[in-house]
Amino acid sequence: MIKKIKFFIFSITLLLLNGCGVYSFTGASISPDIKSISIQQFPNLAMLVQPTLSQSFTMALRDKFASQTNLNILLNNGDLNIEGEITGYTNQPVAIQGNQQAALNRLTITVKVRFTNKKNNKQDFESTFTRYRDYSSQSNLSAVENDLIKEINTDLVEDIFNKAVVNW
């Protein structure tokens, strides 16, 4: 009896999802005629260059689209195209205490993104995205940098993904 109920609920769910057209569980709203996306390498043009940032950011962005959509990832000429550059990478003190020492430091990454949709140029945009993470001034940046970059990249990629294909 439980198997029949589970099958019934599963069947109803499938029917409801078929009626939703291009909606996905990720919230992405991609037209069915969009089949591919090209995501160019994001060069690091920041004043302070972290050597692995360009590669790690670009791969995080490609991985997000590969795992959250059914789009084919191409090197060039996708129906959708994302390109841009890393324009800022800064580390600065925040939360100055009474003894003129910072309690926290802030690592900030800024990227400029150009998004084009060959099928619907009304969705094209050029935007700058900035995210940061604070960390204890007692920590050495080199000890926490890789984890901070990974967290910031995750946030930046989520922001770009949402603006490009979630349309919220």
Core attributes:
alpha/beta; 31% strand; Double Stranded RNA Binding Domain; elongated; 168 residues; five-stranded mixed sheet
Description:
The longest helix is centred in the C-terminal third of the chain and has 26 residues. The chain has a single domain, classed as Lipoprotein like domain (Double Stranded RNA Binding Domain). About 11% of the residues have low confidence. The chain is elongated, with a radius of gyration of 20 Å. With 168 residues, the chain is an alpha/beta fold. Helix 2 runs parallel beside helix 3. Strands 2-1-3-4-5 form a five-stranded mixed sheet, covered by helices on one side.
Run of helices and strands: HEHEEEEH
Q: Give the count of structural domains.
A: 1
The geometry reads as: elongated
Q: Taking all residues together, what is the mean pLDDT? A: 86
Model regions low in confidence, pLDDT < 50 over at least 5 residues: 4-8, 13-26
How would a textbook summarize the main sheet? Answer: 5 strands, mixed
Q: Helical proportion? A: 25-40%
CATH homologous superfamily designation: Lipoprotein like domain
The CATH topology is given as Double Stranded RNA Binding Domain
Structural class: alpha/beta
